[in-house]
Design brief:
372 residues, alpha+beta, two-stranded antiparallel sheet, 9 strands, 59% helix
């Protein structure tokens, strides 16, 4: 944790924790000493009662009257002593007092440590989120500046000279690609805000996953062709119950993520299979991969592997977050695997399978014919 404010907060929290723990421990020691003092005081009183009982016996008092007056003493003609039951009761009361306060001290320590742990975890999470937000701003700035600069260059080229038809078509394709890139970045920001605010309305329906995958791959055909990346499809006829926009967003983000990860000439494979009441779709690439311990954070908001200042691949850190949110809203799950940097990656989405459609009821043989 490199943030000085976070370090200072941690030091303050640790000081408060140590002080609170010391206070509780001192309270326990103080109560133990108090219980010991009470035990000794009662034992002194019992010893004084023994002296008084002996004096009464010497004056001729009856043993029965002395015993009724001092029930905690053993009084006989042979002598007077504190009864073992009274001594045991005093010791038991002392132990009970100390034990009760020990349990209370343990409870308070547990509350203190638990509360401080939650606070420290919150502080660390906040610092991590701030760092990711800073990375996000840098990434979005790059995502917006690059296509804007490209658009400006293409427009200036068209304005300065009359390009040949082939060159004009290339410039127009670049302009359209840059506009799509700008729209995708802005769309991700808007979708993130709508999802976080709970304003995203889902329109669930039966979706042919094979057709959705084919459409998503077709959208990536041009950038894949320009980089020489091959995208394979192995998706049988499967039907899921989900929101169409959400499914396309998930597929588009996973394919876009894979395209950014692979080197020119790389390969991407989209496959799916049905299992009982769920559908599993997997996007596999032979690209850069990621450390296995980063898998749990890839779908966090604004998170991107590595340092933003040294990163070479584009992205805003929102695509996988949006994918996870859409999948979770559909009652599914999404996760990633990689053997490590340079070993490629695998992203798996699990959707609930659509229920079988009920067959249309057969027309009764006596039903009247409908005429137009």
């Amino acid at each position: 944790m490199n943030d000085p404010k976070v370090r200072r907060a941690q030091v303050v929290f640790l000081i408060i924790l140590a002080f609170s723990a010391a206070q509780v421990l001192w309270w326990l020691v103080d109560q133990s000493l108090f219980a010991r003092a009470v035990h000794d005081r009662w034992q002194g009183l019992y010893e004084a009662d023994v002296v008084a009982a002996v004096a009464m016996l010497d004056r001729g008092a009856r043993t029965e009257s002395i015993q009724s007056l001092f029930p905690h003493l053993d009084v006989s003609l042979d002598g007077v002593a504190v009864s073992q039951d009274a001594i045991a009761a005093l010791s038991q009361e002392r132990r009970s007092h100390v034990r009760r306060y020990a349990w209370e001290a343990a409870f308070f320590l547990l509350v203190i440590f638990g509360g401080m742990g939650i606070i420290l975890r919150t502080v660390r999470r906040d610092a991590r989120l701030r760092r990711w937000q800073s990375n996000f701003l840098a990434a979005v700035s790059h995502e917006l500046k690059s296509p804007i600069a490209s658009l400006q260059l293409a427009a200036e080229t068209l304005e300065l000279r009359d390009a040949d038809p082939a060159h004009r078509r290339r410039l127009l394709r670049r302009i359209l690609a840059d506009v799509d890139r700008l729209g995708a970045t802005v769309g991700k920001v808007i979708d993130t805000e709508r999802l976080d605010q709970g304003r995203m309305q889902l329109d669930r329906g039966r979706i042919r996953l094979d057709r959705a995958v084919t459409a998503a791959v077709a959208e990536q055909e041009l950038p894949a062709k320009e980089r020489g990346v091959e995208i394979g499809i192995d998706v049988p006829r499967l039907v899921i119950e989900a929101d169409g926009v959400g499914v396309q967003t998930v597929l588009r983000n996973l394919l876009d993520n894979a395209l950014k990860a692979v080197e020119p000439g790389g390969q991407i494979m989209v496959s799916a299979r049905g299992e009982a009441d769920e559908i599993r779709l997997t996007v596999t690439d032979d690209g850069h991969g990621f450390p296995p311990d980063e898998a749990a954070h890839l779908f966090d908001k604004f998170y991107r592997v590595g340092d933003e200042l040294r990163r070479t691949r584009p992205g805003s850190g929102l695509g996988l977050y949006l994918s996870r949110r859409f999948v979770e809203l559909e009652g599914g799950e999404i996760f990633a695997r990689s053997a490590g940097p340079g070993a490629g990656s695998e992203f798996t989405v699990v959707w609930p399978a659509a229920e079988e459609e009920a067959p249309a009821p057969a027309t009764a043989p006596w039903a009247p014919a409908v005429r137009a």
